[in-house]
Amino acid sequence: MPLQLRSLVRPDATLELSLVEVPMPTITASDEVLVHMEASPLNPSDMGLLLAGADMTRASQSGSVERPVITAPLSAGAMAAGTARVGTAMPVGNEGAGTVIAAGDAAEAQALLGKRVALYGGAMYAEYRAVSVKQCLPLPAGATATQGASSFINPLTALGMVETMRTEGHRALVHTVGASNLGQMLNRICLKDGVPLVNIVRKPEHATLLREQGALQVVDSSVPDFTANLVDAIAATGATLAFDAIGGGRLAGQILAAMEAALLRQPGHVYSRYGTDIHKQVYLYGGLNPAPVEIERSFGMAWGVGGWLVFPFLQRLGPQRTQQLQQRVSDELTSTFASHYTKEISLQQVLTLEAIKSCSRMATGEKTLIRIAPG
Amino acid sequence: MPLQLRSLVRPDATLELSLVEVPMPTITASDEVLVHMEASPLNPSDMGLLLAGADMTRASQSGSVERPVITAPLSAGAMAAGTARVGTAMPVGNEGAGTVIAAGDAAEAQALLGKRVALYGGAMYAEYRAVSVKQCLPLPAGATATQGASSFINPLTALGMVETMRTEGHRALVHTVGASNLGQMLNRICLKDGVPLVNIVRKPEHATLLREQGALQVVDSSVPDFTANLVDAIAATGATLAFDAIGGGRLAGQILAAMEAALLRQPGHVYSRYGTDIHKQVYLYGGLNPAPVEIERSFGMAWGVGGWLVFPFLQRLGPQRTQQLQQRVSDELTSTFASHYTKEISLQQVLTLEAIKSCSRMATGEKTLIRIAPG
Q: Which pLDDT tens digit goes with each residue over B313-346?
């Protein structure tokens, strides 16, 4: 029987990761296809479900080479947050790529038979997966599974940020993990589309990397004059919208304050104790720092901070525009939307201490691909 | 020459409050009216501009009985926040009521001649004020200036909260300063309109007060089981929108967590590590606690926290609906929208240590009216 990776929160406050044998998925609707999975990325967005907030520095490995098992302790806080999933072994993996080996009766499903597709929808860390054609993106002829494995999460998130900017009436963006895989992709989109982008990075070498890729505004948060540099960069772009993957700490508030300071530089400004009437927004789309968000209000009343997720956003955007965005990903798969992997491992190798600790660090610039089958 | 109250931030980091003689305002457009001011409230929303964040515990009084002067020291932080107003003596006062004694040529201006009106637009702590008829609300026959002085800020803020709930697709409200003048007004509106409301109060006697006024859901944040009580009250109402005047501290995050906990109680709920997909929103419309807002994220990704001000909201709502809301205020001026004052003082008496310290405390249940002229 085919293998599937599972993440279980046990009642004894232990996370248990294992490979389980599951029945071959079957096609249950005419628009479904059965995909032989070939590759799937370990995205930061997979880590929450996979690791359940467990302390991976205290993880241990058991089982066999073919059926390795990783266990790690969960704090009381992590157990409380995961109450709803205790005792249920959750399949994991937001996206991947593979080849369609069976299809339902519908013409759009039949059209994919034998084709390599990118797909999303959870439970992708598995040898086989049945999904609706709506969850598939046919890959361009000749594209490898490696090239197609990350066709949804990062590309649609980056495109979704630019779409959000347009639909909510902003004209430039701030992004807080500029040098990440996603950040580099967003930089390529913005350069191509003429969207002014302020890239915030946390290390000088990341600033260099982005500048080498043509980024015009790069601000390093590790230098003493970060705040002043941020105001300058925001003033140069007119950004009033930021996407932040860090979450915890004071960064979101600092960005709002820098936006307001940049707006106050504009000529013809009239003092109001409520601040400017121009709305400033920071969306938190990740939580690299799980500490509380601390917002020191020094930027008037026209502001917002909130959560942002790409799929609910696309739902609001509607199927037509979403389809256009997906087509663009396919068209520019090996240029704008290319992902770079620093490591390739098997499903079994995911469940090794070395791999799992490396992934749980989510270090900028490192990205691992799970090679499930040749392709 | 008529008197006007002014608030000046001096370059030597001192706040100076005084009465200055200003020329009689003149009508400069056909739709303007000249109002002899009779009464004006000291609202919490006036305190920021009036006091500029000065340390009023260290205030001192000088000048004469007719021209008293209050001075108080400003911290470095308050000076930094007020940079833009240093050296400019700002007129103060968001709203008030008085009698129209001159009018421009336009029919709608002429129609108000001799009538008592409520008005808003700043600089209301003065003996005379010229404004557009758009900033006036004709008071019902027989209404006193005391009854009409607070016809805009609190009534439109409370109505704006209910309108925001409707336009943003929520069905119930949480309000964090339930026993305030505004909170009691909001409670009357919600009871009349059948809008479920969770009132958060900070003292047992405030809970009693609101219950005596018919409030159905009152939660006291000073008791140990506040969190559990809040979840119960939110679950009973289905509230996913809150208005908070406190701002600093952990309350906004606690409300979002309680909303998510209440949503998770609903049957048929499917676990997602991103939380429910139902948007939860807290608007901060005041800053009674100037400390940073601390948001501990334990409620998924469908959330927002942001600033909210009534006049920008009404601008988005449009003139037609705003006019309907103002008409309702006029119709229910002495019932739903009645304000209660615990003290009445003259313009000169505002500039006494006793009055200014009492106002700067903004204690729930205390409200002062400035009596500018009989009416």
A: 999 999 999 999 999 999 999 999 999 899 999 9
Confidence of residue B267 (pLDDT cuts 50, 70, 90): confident
Q: Is the pLDDT of residue B271 over 80?
A: no
CATH 3.40.50.720 residue ranges in chain A?
Answer: 154-313
Is domain B3-150+339-371 classified as CATH 3.40.1360.10? no
B305/A302 touch (CB, cutoff 8 Å), yes or no: no
- Beta-ladder partners of A303: A280
Selection from B13, B18, B17, B11 nearest residue B73 by Cα: B13
Q: How far apart are CA A196 and CA A241, in angstroms?
A: 11
Specify the DSSP class assigned to residue B143.
-
- B266 and B290 Cβ atoms separated by less than 8 Å: no
For residue B371, the surrounding DSSP H or E stretch is strand B368-371
Single-letter amino acid, residue B306: G
Render pLDDT for B5-15 as a digit per residue (tens, 0 to 9).
Answer: 999 999 999 99
CB of B306 within 8 A of CB of B241? no
Residue among A88, A248, A307 whose CB faces B301 most closely = A307
Looking at chain A from residue 193 to 252, which residues have their Cβ under 8 Å from any Cβ of chain B? 247-248, 250
- In chain A, CATH 3.90.180.10 sits at 3-150+339-371
Q: What is the dihedral of CA B305, B311, B313, B318, to 10 degrees?
A: 180
Q: Print burial letters for A335-354: b (CB count within 10 Å at least 16), e (below 16).
A: ebbebebeeebebbbbbbee
- Pick from A250, A303, A309: which is nearest to B301 by CB? A309
3-class secondary structure, B375? coil
Q: Which of residues 24-83 of A touch B (CB under 8 A)?
A: 48-49, 81
Name beta bridge partners: B120: B95
User: Alpha-carbon distance A223 to A202, whole Å?
Assistant: 9
Of A163-167, B180-184, B280-284, the range with the lowest mean pLDDT is: B180-184
Task: Assess A89–B contact: CB distance below 8 Å, yes or no.
Answer: no
Which residues of chain A does B247 touch, with a Cβ-Cβ cutoff of 8 Å?
Answer: 297
Choose the closest CB to B307 out of A48, A273, A301.
A301
Report CB contact under 8 Å: A301, B309. yes
What's the whole-model pTM score?
A: 0.90
The amino acid present at A178, given as its one-letter code, is: G
- pLDDT over 80 (residue B89): yes
CA distance A358 to chain B (A): 22
CATH for B154-313 (2.30.42.10, 3.40.1360.10, 3.30.70.120, 3.40.50.720): 3.40.50.720
Contact B150, B93 (CB under 8 A): no
What is the dihedral sign for C-alpha B106, B111, B113, B115? negative
DSSP element (H, E) containing A207:
helix A204-212
pLDDT at residue A232 is higher than 90: yes
Contact (Cβ atoms closer than 8 angstroms) between residue B277 and residue B240? no
Size of interface A-B (CB pairs under 8 A): 92
CB B257 within 8 A of CB B299: yes
Query: Mutating which of A271, A276, A279, A285 best tests the B interface, going by the most B Cβ atoms within 10 A?
Result: A271
Which residue type occupies A338? A
Round to whole Å and give the CA distance between A294 and A255.
Answer: 12
What does pLDDT average to over chain A?
A: 94
CB contact under 8 A, B305 and A306: yes
Q: Tokens 């709930």 identify what position?
A: B165
A274 at B interface, C-beta within 8 A: yes
Judge whether A297 is closer than 8 Å to chain B, CB to CB.
yes
Complex ipTM = 0.88
